[in-house]
Design brief:
heterotrimer, A mainly alpha (about 120), B mainly alpha (about 625), C alpha+beta (about 525), B: about 625 residues, mainly alpha, Cytochrome C Oxidase, Chain A, two-stranded antiparallel sheet, 22 helices, 4 strands, disordered N terminus, disordered C terminus, C: about 525 residues, alpha+beta, Four Helix Bundle (Hemerythrin (Met), subunit A), 3 domains, six-stranded antiparallel beta sheet, about 15% strand
Chain lengths: ~120, ~625, ~525
């Protein structure tokens, strides 16, 4: 991480830029979800909430979260070990969420069987 | 500088040190200690007490199974007051409700309060920092908090035995909606046993979270000079993997526990489906719309890694004891290390093999069946490596070695009986039968507990400066070995006959039907029901067999044979380089590591062991992988 | 003894201990919140009811997001200030961070408070009414409970004649509440019959209490003690007797198994009788002049002539009309009703027409007809913009929520439209935070409604018990709130007590603040996901 004073001064500008980006991202999420007035064209997918709204919303949230993790939490220059630990956890979270969704999505009571 | 010299020299220095810098009061030294060794001993003793209590609960259950018509004998019932017995026993007989309570708490206590704290908490705490050459854990105060949180969690859980509701009664897995409804009659839900169980669980998970963060940090950052990754004793590797399992697998259960707590105290319906109806209360006054399966998923996401949290410390102890007592290196150290890493990884994605019968979906079942079969490979690699390590060794049957030798076949039976359960189709027949009980008790009782007994005897001389008594140990070991098998093998037989694991009267209710010869199941029950009595006698005998251990454990502390030196087993790993018992700060010399952990019977050495910390002789041939100046190449 | 690598990184790993530890901790937190978010996905995918989409006011959530992001920036600036050895700057930034945390919690607290005081009820036909309950009044004045709080008009009223307590368990607070209510009505609750029991083996029975003794906790406790002692004594006797019986049976039939003998082995209760003590499983009190007692619906299983409390107390007496009275109805929701109807092949309109609400309440019908006009207008606007598909159906259609739910904003608009209820701009802005302004809009917009007890399928405040959306919302945000508080306390500690650390080794404090900051960013990170998931989806 930035240790010298100049570097820290420089990175303070980055922090402010990220701050701006996060604010913009937040407003954007709300606008995409609400699509008020003349911004109706922001309503992706069907009218109202649907999976596309969820995908876009999560993409924006993911980007914001990455910005926080990479810049604020200094993951852009962190030790290998930290990457292993943190991304390992995220991988196992993905396993949990993914397999749970899969289990929900494949019921043994296949409706074709009972049709 | 030889090992003995090293520690002897600095023994004086140590005393010196202690006098000047570290002279805490009795309370700070023995109760609120931040020293990893004291905390390890606290963990160990607490865990052994909980194990004894869990064992007692099991005996009451076994009485109910074997003699469902007879009152509980006085020698078992004395622990509870007459008022308690009038509430929970029917004319002195164990009722179904009480059996459920004891069953749930037996499982919980054995798993969460007994074996994990004994394996990970006690041995992990005592041995790990010593083996990596650290002065203490990375965060000593956190370590202390971890122990006290564990104790609080355990006491909260056990206190509920004496409450109006009694302790939790929904099995150690605490499945909803049963667990969501249980104790619903209690007005103040915070004082219901089922709620206390959840609060206790949250405390225990907090404790293990603090513990595992501490362990992993210690292992990563506090290794001595020259202690590279591949020079870590296998014990440390196992603890590292266990730490990660605790760190990452427990939180989803904590989430599930909090959600179930919400279900109980805030009347949410996370795990309560729509349209729940009970005979007593009619349609449940709940929002509904939740999923009982969700609880099972989150529970077993912890549940399976938990098996390895139980197992790895035991394997770790055995893997340390075998090389010392065969006087030859651990066979396949590297493959064991990689196996244990793969084991840890795979254990996160096998959980739903506990849930084949839940209607979870065939494609998902197939996935979990595959990963379950895969995970048996690293386990078999480890156990095979341990077995081969015995080959051609000059085995010393010291007390720890006896237990370690028994561990391998006993754990083998446990592991192999698990294989059929990995398969969907076999699961249809064996699910929830005594076969499952037999399988995992073989893993846990004669397997893991034998490994931990081995550990107790192995490190006892380091902890107390005295050996345990060999005769008493034989008196403990042989009956235990026999009784364990008398107790658990018939379970496999009964299970295959179809005995359900939760019959509080051992299947007695089916006998009436057996008279009708057309009732096949009733007849099968009649054929196998007498095994209940055999098993129960096994259990009583097993209880008696533990008495020599208790005597040995207590007496040897003050009266055992004194150790001749700091390294009584002539071992190579670092914990034996410390004074006996190790003082605050552990080491009395500047620790540096020069070689791998299991350098026994090297042909180029005079002695049959070459400790990790022994400075290489400049004139001797430097073998490959042995760095002369540890510090220059490695860390600091 | 000194633990190494507290402030200087170890060379090969390049890390100080605390940094490894905090990342491990965060990894564990990922799994904890991961468990909750997975549960959210699972519950939402499996929901068998209309998931309440976008049902929270967005503005407070949005502001909270800004607040948390801002605090994330200031905490990293505070760390930078330390790195540059500017103590004053560090103090300023850290103070802002902690202030942001406090602001976040205040806003969160307001949101929670409003939800906890907002009532909803699911009727038997699955239509849903939301709003604010009225309070119990007597001669125009509020009735207060034992603790001095007003009582909501959602109580089970029973004209109690007799009350039977289980002597094993009774909830002291409820007994006190009954006594208070009875004394409020100048009624007496007295013991029905004499209690005369054998309390010592072989001695004659003695009188424990006389008929007519007034109900009190002391009396109940006394009877309970006697009963429990008798139970213990008697059960011990029976145990010994059964054990003897088995002994005799075994001696008489050597080699026989228990199960072959069990039929013939039993306790000779007659022989035991002289040594048994008197048990009294329940004790009955008579209400001198039958008086109306109020019970919370969750505490009681009500019946027409006898009801049971959760502590097994049986109240004998007629159940009176116990409606749930909304003082202000602020939403009517037919989504679930429509969902159920469509499953049965009934058209949505028919189902709504036949609902209890439409049949019994004119204002609901009026509102629904107004709502139909509004939705037609909205659909037309969509058609004008997006046109029709080849088969003649519109490209974009209104959502179920828009079609079948009349939320408070719809009702408010209707009030403006049909009744001309206008409220000031400031009140309107406030509504975006606090929800509907009942005082300003009044009963013209939000009407009164009384739901008879037998129409209620399920009722709850907007707490975790209302449905799983609120359950997971409160659980995740509540846990997140605890993290905010914990993190803020740690940062506050560095702000207030970090000076000493700073003077002894500024790098040490910088490390600590970095670690605390990492946790803080993680808390922010969770919120970044929680906000869209709970407020916008």
């Amino acid at each position: 991480m930035a240790d010298s004073i100049e570097e820290i001064q420089k990175s303070k500008k980055t922090y402010l830029a990220v701050f701006g980006a996060l604010l913009v991202g937040t407003v954007l999420t709300v606008l995409v979800a609400e699509a008020p007035g003349w911004l109706y064209w922001l309503d992706v997918g069907e009218h109202g909430f649907d999976k596309w709204d969820a995908i876009v919303g999560m993409l924006i949230a993911g980007t914001k979260a990455s910005l926080v993790a990479v810049i604020f939490m200094h993951l852009n220059h962190e030790k290998k070990l930290i990457y292993w630990v943190f991304f390992g956890a995220i991988f196992f979270f993905a396993c949990l969420a993914g397999l749970l969704a899969l289990a929900k999505g494949s019921p043994i009571f296949d409706y074709l069987f009972y049709k | 500088m030889s090992a003995k010299a090293a520690s002897h020299d600095s023994h004086d220095h140590h005393d010196d040190h202690a006098d000047h810098h570290h002279n805490p009061g009795w309370l700070a030294k023995y109760v609120f200690s931040t020293d990893h060794k004291t905390i390890g001993i606290q963990y160990g003793i607490t865990a052994l007490l909980f194990l004894a209590f869990g064992f007692y609960l099991m005996m009451v259950m076994r009485w109910s199974i074997a003699y469902p018509h007879q009152p509980l004998p006085d020698w078992m019932g004395w622990i509870f007051s007459d008022t308690w017995k009038s509430r929970w026993l029917q004319d002195g007989k164990v009722t179904g409700e009480t059996y459920n309570m004891f069953g749930a708490m037996h499982g919980t206590i054995m798993v969460f309060l007994g074996i994990v704290p004994l394996g990970f908490g006690a041995f992990g705490n005592y041995v790990t920092p010593l083996q990596i050459g650290a002065v203490d854990m990375a965060f000593p105060k956190l370590n202390m908090v971890s122990y006290w949180t564990y104790l609080a969690g355990g006491l909260v859980m056990c206190a509920s035995f004496f409450m109006e509701s009694g302790a939790a009664k929904s099995g150690w897995t605490n499945y909803s909606p049963l667990a969501g409804f249980a104790d619903g009659q209690i007005v103040n839900q915070w004082l219901a046993g089922q709620t206390q169980w959840l609060i206790g669980l949250v405390l225990l998970i907090t404790s293990s979270l603090l513990g595992s963060v501490n362990f992993i940090t210690t292992i990563i950052n506090l290794r001595a000079r020259g202690m590279t990754w591949m020079r870590l004793p296998f014990f440390v590797w196992a603890m590292l993997v266990t730490g990660f399992l605790l760190l990452l697998a427990f939180p989803p259960l904590e989430a599930a526990g909090i959600m179930q707590l919400m279900d109980r105290v805030a009347h949410s319906s996370f795990f309560m489906p729509s349209g729940l109806f009970t005979k007593a209360d009619g349609l449940a006054d709940l929002a509904g719309g939740g999923s009982p399966l969700l609880f099972q998923h989150l529970f077993w996401f912890l549940g399976h890694p938990e098996v390895y949290v139980l197992l790895l410390p035991a394997i770790a102890c055995v893997a340390e004891i075998i090389p010392v007592n065969t006087r030859k290196p651990l066979w396949g150290y590297k493959s064991m290390v990689y196996s244990v890493l793969i084991l840890g990884f795979l254990s996160f994605i096998v959980w739903a093999h506990h849930m084949y019968m839940t209607g979870m979906g065939s494609s998902v079942s197939t996935f979990f069946q595959t990963t379950t079969v895969l995970i048996s490979i690293p386990s078999v690699v480890i156990i095979t490596a341990l077995l081969i390590s015995l080959w051609g060794g000059s085995i010393r049957f010291t007390p720890p070695m006896l237990w370690a030798c028994a561990f391998i076949p006993m754990f083998g039976i446990g592991g192999l009986t698990g294989l059929p359960l990995a398969f969907n189709l076999v699961g249809l027949h064996l699910h929830d039968t005594y076969y499952v009980i037999g399988h995992f008790h073989y893993v846990v009782a004669p397997g893991i507990l034998f490994g931990l007994f081995a550990g107790v005897h192995h490190w006892y001389p380091k902890i107390t400066g005295r050996y345990t008594n060999s005769f008493l140990n034989h008196l403990h070991f042989w009956p235990s070995l026999v009784c364990m098998n008398v107790l658990f093998f018939p379970m496999l037989v009964q299970g295959m006959a179809g005995f359900h694991r939760r019959w509080y009267n051992g299947g007695d209710a089916y006998l009436e039907k057996a008279a009708d010869s057309a009732n096949v199941f009733g007849n099968i029950v009649r054929e196998h029901i007498d095994l209940n009595i055999v098993m129960s006698y096994g259990a009583w005998a097993l209880a008696v067999a533990q008495i020599p251990f208790i005597i040995n454990f207590l007496l040897a502390w003050k009266m055992g044979r004194k150790v001749e030196n700091d390294n009584p087993w002539d071992a190579t790993t670092l914990e034996w380089a410390t004074p006996t018992p190790p003082g605050h700060g552990n080491f009395t010399f500047d620790v540096a590591i020069y070689r791998g952990p299991y350098e026994y019977s090297r042909p180029d050495c005079d002695k049959d062991y070459l400790p990790q910390w022994q400075v290489p002789d400049k004139n001797a041939r430097v073998s490959e992988g042995e760095s002369e100046v540890a510090a220059s190449k490695d860390t600091h | 003894m000194e633990i190494p690598y507290i402030f200087t990184p170890r060379k090969d790993t390049g890390l100080v201990n605390s940094k490894i530890a905090i990342w491990l901790f965060l990894a564990s937190e990922v799994m904890l919140f991961g468990g909750f978010f997975s549960a959210y996905v699972y519950l939402r995918l499996g929901a068998d009811y209309p998931w309440p989409e976008r049902s929270l006011p967005v503005l407070p959530g949005l502001i909270n997001t800004f607040v948390l992001i801002a605090s994330s920036v200031t905490v990293v600036f505070a760390w930078a200030a330390l790195k540059m050895r500017k103590w004053r700057q560090f103090q300023v930034y850290m103070a802002i961070t902690v202030a942001c945390a406090a602001l976040f919690m205040v806003l969160k607290g307001i949101e929670y408070y409003l939800k906890f005081h907002h009532q909803a009820v699911r009727l038997h036909d699955y239509s849903i009414v939301e709003g604010h309950l009225g309070y119990e009044k007597e001669d125009g004045k509020l009735v207060l409970d034992r603790k001095g709080h007003p009582i909501e008009e959602n109580m089970i009223r029973i004209k109690a004649e007799k009350i039977s307590f289980s002597t094993k368990r009774y909830h002291a607070a409820w007994v006190e509440e009954m006594l208070a209510e009875a004394s409020h009505h100048q009624a007496e609750i007295n013991l029905e019959a004499d209690i005369t029991l054998v309390v010592e083996e072989g001695k004659p029975a003695i009188e424990i209490a006389k008929a007519g003794a007034p109900l009190s906790l002391e009396l109940l406790n006394k009877i309970k003690d006697v009963h429990i002692a008798a139970l213990a004594h008697n059960s011990q006797l029976r145990t010994v007797a059964l054990r003897e019986a088995w002994k005799t049976a075994h001696e008489a039939n050597p080699g026989k198994k228990d199960r072959e003998l069990s039929e013939g082995v039993g306790i000779d209760m007659e022989a035991l009788k002289p040594s048994m003590l008197g048990e009294i499983p329940s004790v009955t009190f008579v209400v001198a002049s039958p008086v109306e007692l109020l019970f919370k619906p969750r505490d009681i299983k009500e019946g027409p002539s006898s009801s049971t409390l959760r502590d097994d107390t049986v109240i004998t007496g007629k159940m009176e009309d116990s409606p749930m009275v909304f003082h202000y109805v602020d939403a009517i929701d037919f989504q679930w009703l429509v969902m159920k109807a469509e499953k049965k092949g009934i058209a949505a309109e028919t189902a709504i027409e036949n609902s209890w609400l439409m049949k019994n309440h004119d204002f609901v019908r009026e509102a629904w007809e107004w709502h139909l006009k509004q939705t037609a207008k909205k659909q037309k606007a969509l058609n004008d913009r997006y046109g029709f598909k080849k088969d003649g159906t519109p490209v974009r259609v209104l959502t179920e929520k828009e079609l079948y739910r009349m939320g408070w904003k719809d009702l408010a608009e209707k009030g403006v439209d049909t009744k001309g209820v206008k409220i000031s701009g400031f009140d309107k802005l406030k509504e975006e935070f606090m929800g509907p302004n009942y005082d300003a809009r009044g009963n013209e917009t939000f009407e009164e409604l009384s739901v008879p007890r037998d129409q209620i399928r399920y009722a709850s405040k907007f707490t975790p018990s209302w449905n799983n959306y609120y359950a997971i919302y409160f659980t995740i945000t509540g846990l997140h709130g605890l993290h905010v508080i914990g993190g803020a306390l740690v940062l506050l500690y560095y702000l207030l007590f970090g000076r000493k650390m700073y003077l002894s080794n500024p790098e040490w404090l910088a490390n600590r603040v970095e670690v605390g900051g990492l946790f803080w960013h993680f808390v922010d990170l969770i919120w970044i996901f929680a906000f869209p998931i709970f407020y916008l989806m």
